[in-house]
């Protein structure tokens, strides 16, 4: 599973970018909030990556900050929201305003995002409010950025583990319950350890 990618930005498009690393060009789908923050072509870039695996495709989604990735992972944990809609949601509102809307339970604001209907907005507001509050509490005083090795590590690992289990075919609700139980057993642990313990719970 690719979690981070650093290389030369060789193609830059709002829909996706291409990053060359070791002679290989990786196509990465990015939200507009990340796209606007990218350097010029042929310059070095570093992105946090979520690897989405399906039977017929493997897609990389890239983010400039841990905050953006954490919000993306929260969104895809909601039933009916796939990675493309999660990226579109981040593109349509931006991470700071999205976090504010979720923590406030503002379904009306969420519904104004292109592609997000009334029922989806209500599910986001209901299901993600508590977890979004915990993200907001971890924001540094300077703003929405997190120190590279701190801040969202635990939250991101949790959501990555849930996503990995869903990609393996487990229902989202069962995957989340397993990761919660695994987290209570082992506490802070690397992503790999959390996934292994979650699989033990499911077995």
Give a verbal description of the structure.
With 203 residues, the chain is α+β, with helices and mostly antiparallel strands. The chain has three domains: 4-63, Beta Barrel (OB fold (Dihydrolipoamide Acetyltransferase, E2P)); 66-137, 5' to 3' exonuclease, C-terminal subdomain (DNA polymerase, domain 1); 153-202, Helicase, Ruva Protein, domain 3. Helices cover 50% and strands 18% of the residues. The protein is built from nine helices and five strands. The chain has a five-stranded mixed barrel with strand order 1-2-3-5-4. Strand 2 (17-21) and strand 3 (24-29) form a beta hairpin. Residues 140-153 have low confidence and may be disordered.
User: Globular, elongated, flat, extended or rod-shaped: what is the shape?
Assistant: globular
CATH topology group of the largest domain: DNA polymerase, domain 1
Major beta sheet, specifics? Answer: 5 strands, mixed, barrel
Q: Provide the domain count.
A: 3
CATH superfamily of the largest domain: 5' to 3' exonuclease, C-terminal subdomain
Uncertain regions spanning at least 5 consecutive residues:
140-153
Cα radius of gyration in angstroms: 17 Å
Order of helices and strands, N to C?
EEEHEEHHHHHHHH
In percent terms, what proportion of residues is strand? 15-25%
CATH-defined architecture of the largest domain: Orthogonal Bundle
Beta strands, count: 5
């Amino acid at each position: 599973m690719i979690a981070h990618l650093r290389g030369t930005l060789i193609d830059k498009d709002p829909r996706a970018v291409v990053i060359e690393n070791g002679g290989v060009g990786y196509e990465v789908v990015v939200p507009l909030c990340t796209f606007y923050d990218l350097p010029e072509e042929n310059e070095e870039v570093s992105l946090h990556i979520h690897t989405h695996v399906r039977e017929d495709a493997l897609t990389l989604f890239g983010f400039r900050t841990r905050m953006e990735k954490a919000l993306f992972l929260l969104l895809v944990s909601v039933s009916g929201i796939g990675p493309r809609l999660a990226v579109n949601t981040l593109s349509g509102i931006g991470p700071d305003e999205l976090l504010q809307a979720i923590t406030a339970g503002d379904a009306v604001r969420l519904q104004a995002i292109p592609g997000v209907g009334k029922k989806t907005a209500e599910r986001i507001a209901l299901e993600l409010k508590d977890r979004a509050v915990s993200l907001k509490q971890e924001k540094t005083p300077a703003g929405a950025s997190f120190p590279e090795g701190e801040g969202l590590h635990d939250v991101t690992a949790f959501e990555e583990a849930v996503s990995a289990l869903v990609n393996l075919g487990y229902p989202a609700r069962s995957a989340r319950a397993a990761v919660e139980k695994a987290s209570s057993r082992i506490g802070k642990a690397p992503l790999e350890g959390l996934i292994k313990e979650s699989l033990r719970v499911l077995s």
